[in-house]
Amino acid sequence: MRIHRRALLALAVATGLTAPSLAFAEDSIKIGLLATFEGPFTVLGEDGERGAMTAIEEVGGTVAGKKIEIVKGSSDASPDSAVRAARKLVEQDGVKVLVGPLSGDEGIAVKDYAKTQPDVTFINGTSAAQDTTLRDPAENFFRFSTDGAQWMAGLGTYAYNEKGYKKVATVAEDYSFPYTQVFGFMAEFCKAGGTVPSKSWVPIGNKDYSSVIAAIPDDVDAIYVALGGADGVNFLTQYQQAGGSAPLIGGSITVDQTVLTSKGKIREVVIGTPSAGPVADTNDAPEWKAFVEAYKKQPNAFPSPSLFAHGYYVDMKATLLALEQVGADVSDGGAKLREALSKLSFDTPTGKVSLDKNRNAIADIYLTEVAEGSDGNLYNKLVKVVPQVNQTLGIPEEEFLKLGVVGRDNPSCP
Amino acid sequence: MTVLASTEQPVSAGTVIEKIGAGNIVLLVLLVLYPAVASNFFLAQIGAYSLILGMIALSLMLLAGYGGMVSLAQISVAGIAGYTVAVFGLNNSGVHGFGWPFWIVVPFATLIGAVASALIGLISNRTEGIYTIMITLAIATAFFYFTQQNYSLFNGFPGYTGIRAPEFWGVAWRDPLPFYYLCLGFAVVTYAAVLYGSRSTYGLTLQAVRDNPRRMRALGFNVTAHKVVAYFYAGVIAGLAGVLLVWFNGRISPGTINVAAAINVLIIAVIGGMRHPIGPFLGAIVVVLMQTFAIDIVGAERFNTLIGLFFLVIVFVSPDGLLGLWGRIKPHLAQESLRSLR
Q1: What's the rounded mean pLDDT across residues A7-33?
Q2: Which of A30, A228, A289, B325 could form a disulfide bond with A253, CB atoms 3.0-4.6 angstroms apart?
Q3: Mean pLDDT across chain A, nearest whole number?
Q4: Average pLDDT of A167-194?
Q5: Could you tell me the CATH number of the domain that includes residue A114?
Q6: Residue A119 and residue A56 share a domain
Q7: Is residue B37 part of a domain?
Q8: Is the overall model pTM greater than 0.90, yes or no?
């Protein structure tokens, strides 16, 4: 009997916990928002949320007359946690539209999950691994933010032609997003005639880079670094302390505010570092400036939106535009919504965005270089805009696919 | 020991029900009927997942509760079994995937897990108390980093994807309902085995080793062998759970077995209580419910704080976890019913 009572109690607790999700009104539309609210990328996930909320506030929290209800899911940047959170949003909370996730391998895992839920529409957050959309894509997974190889557009050529680097070593984190970034850089750099004799892959959260630094050949002209957040600062500090003097080339999330605002000798090392990505802090376009102002209204916003805020903004914006077109009606299993999404072409703060046949974005990419401002602060100076970069980087798709799956050993040009 | 003795029913000997215990039977019936009221999400993501985590925590409870050895490497053992399934079964990561049939892969993976567990037991055997925790934590951490950086065997950071549960007897075993019963079946068998084992000669010897290893050694028992065998049995349970876990997720990567996951297993065992094999399962249900729904209660920014506070309260109120809490409430309830009789 007692056990029975206990079971009833458990049941009551369980229903109490699920009740909020059952309160589903006809005049509202639920959108799942999946980002990293825990683990090493928490700060980035929160900025992604700010970007998504900026897009929602732009439309006043309603789409086609229906109130937008955001249901959040949290992952810790591991693929398992992303799928678990997506499952909860879809199977328990009943969202028919889901925006996210944030990190590379999460995106591939959620894409695989999307195939088992054909009636749910998935729109990427900022996950930028190439194979989320290039190979074996899911019909219902859309990416309006570009991938990590696209973010590198123009950088390899610039490093070879303008900077005169012929031989470059790479240091990057050991998972799919940095693979994609290195791939994007090398695709152009090797084609231009450069060589990459050494590639080092380090685990996320690595603290000691001495063995990596020792393995970098002495005769390289520059080092390509694709490390995020604290990893980037740790590497740069240790490299500089070890007496390294080669100039740097940055990945999209390497030369961010944490690196630019760090004190000490790193400053001298990073000045002149070229980099590329989907956003540029010093973009003077009025659309970008308006976006920055709107973004800054979000709680705890950074001085300038990170590419995560931008990516989530663009993907959420696309979702809202498409929902507006179909009257926020997903009762048909989202078929109309997906139709609208695949045809969507719109102007973002960073130029026009449209989709290719794999539902991956074609968008502008910004080439930047670290410079010292008149006030002594370092900033990413906009060098040029590479217009309308597609996923195959301008190479015909057949030829591009022949380059093979991105990974530790591909591409290679020693 | 004392707790076990007190749960036995004081009635005339003989019938099966008495041997198993009425409480266990009621519990089993409720769990078998659970799908009648539960949605698919509550069946798989809450029910089956709790049972799987409960089994991993059960293997820790076996070691810690009966053997006095707190091993943080049980998630690694589950991970080894899971990776074995991925490597020798089928996956779509394009690495290995020998395609052995499940009826070879499952026992093989379990055996590999059990042997790995026994090896961990052998290594940590010379240590006691906090040093066992340290050395097993070191093993778990090292294994996590190894899987993350080794590509030839573990496929590095992405791990293995596209691992499917088998389909036989016309049943797709990863569908929510069959999968729930599959997990329930394994959980019941392991639970019963631990309960039975704890009263067997070996189980009693192990508990005696826990209480006084020197005396047991003087009496002629091989203390080392008893401990290593306990690790082997715990490895069988964790290995089975690892197989289910990899079917549940459909994938395995270093994120499945990282240090946070290792600590999670310890939390489950502590929350539930380590005195009785039901404790880990209770703990798993509480932890899974909290980790799934806390974000709906307080929002994305502070939900981990809420989870932490909730666990803190449980441990603060009752150092023995939920089982201890129940142990304290029970006498009060008994008196309550006596009062109402009057």
Answers
A1: 59
A2: A228
A3: 85
A4: 90
A5: 3.40.50.2300
A6: yes
A7: no
A8: no
Residues A251 and A389 grouped into a single domain: yes
Within-domain flag for B41: no
Residue B58 lies in a domain: yes
Range of B91's domain? 2-9+17-32+46-341
Q: Give strand ranges (E) for A229-326.
A: 248-250, 274-277
DSSP helix/strand/coil, B154: coil
* Residue A272 to chain B, least CA–CA distance (Å): 32
B291-295: long-range pairs with CB below 8 Å, 24+: B292/A88, B292/A92, B292/B45, B292/B46, B293/A17, B293/A18, B295/A37, B295/A72, B295/A73, B295/A74
Task: Note whether A67 and A215 are same-domain residues.
Answer: no
The verdict on B103 touching A (C-beta cutoff 8 Å) is no
Helices (H) and strands (E) in chain A, counts: 14, 15
Grade residue A21 by pLDDT with cuts at 50, 70 and 90: very low
Alpha helices, H only, chain B: 2-7, 16-20, 22-33, 40-41, 49-61, 67, 74-88, 102-124, 130-149, 176-199, 201-211, 213-218, 223-249, 259-272, 278-298, 303-317, 321-341
Least CB–CB distance from A4: residue in B26, B42, B330? B26
Residues 186-215 of B with CB under 8 A from A: none
Which among A262, A300, A230 has a CA at the least distance from the CA of A378?
A262
Q: Which residues of A283-309 are buried (b: 16+ CB within 10 A; e: fewer)?
A: beeeebeebbebbeebeebbebbbbbb
B285 touches chain A (CB under 8 A): yes
Distance between CA atoms of residues B47 and B40, nearest Å:
9
* Chain B residues with beta carbon closer than 8 angstroms to that of A4: 26, 30
Q: What does the alpha-carbon distance between residue A149 and residue A137 come to, in Å, rounded to a whole number?
A: 17
Tell me how many domains chain A contains.
2
In angstroms, rounded to a whole number, what is the distance separating the alpha carbons of residues A358 and A84? 25
Q: How far from B258 is each of B76, B146, B238, CA to CA, in Å?
A: 8, 11, 16
Full residue range of the structural domain in which residue A256 is found: 150-277+373-402
ipTM (interface predicted TM)? 0.78
Residues A242 and A350 in one domain: no
Give yes or no: residues A330 and A356 share one domain.
yes
With a cut of 90, say whether residue B111 has pLDDT above it.
yes
CA distance B28 to B191: 11
Do the domain assignments include residue A48? Answer: yes
* AA identity, residue A265: K
B158 vs A7, A38, A176: nearest CB: A176
Q: Are A97 and A40 found together in one domain? A: yes
Confidence band of B14 (pLDDT split at 50, 70, 90): low
Residue A112: closest CA among chain B residues belongs to which residue? B162
Instruction: Specify if A8 maps to a domain.
Output: no
| CA atoms of A84 and A134, how far apart (whole Å) | 24
Sequential DSSP letters for A175-212: SHHHHHHHHHHHHHHHHHT-B---EEEE-TT----HHH
Is there a contact between A393 and A150 (Cβ–Cβ < 8 Å)? Answer: yes
Q: Which helix (H) or strand (E) holds A225?
A: strand A222-226
pLDDT > 50? residue B2: no
pLDDT tens-digit readout, A120-131: 999 999 998 888
Is the bond preceding A101 in cis, omega lying within 30 degrees of 0? yes
Chain A residues near residue B148 by CB distance under 8 angstroms: 174, 203
Per the domain annotation, does B158 fall within a domain? yes
Segment (H or E) for A362: strand A361-372
pLDDT at A341 over 50: yes
Tell me, yes or no, if B318 comes closer than 8 A to chain A by beta carbon: no
Q: Does A209 share its domain with A273?
A: yes
Nearest to A7 among B30, B148, B297 (CB): B30
**Buried/exposed B175-194: b ≥16 CB within 10 Å, e otherwise:** ebbbbbbbbbebbbebbebb
Pairing of strands A345-348, A351-355: antiparallel
Domain count, chain B: 1
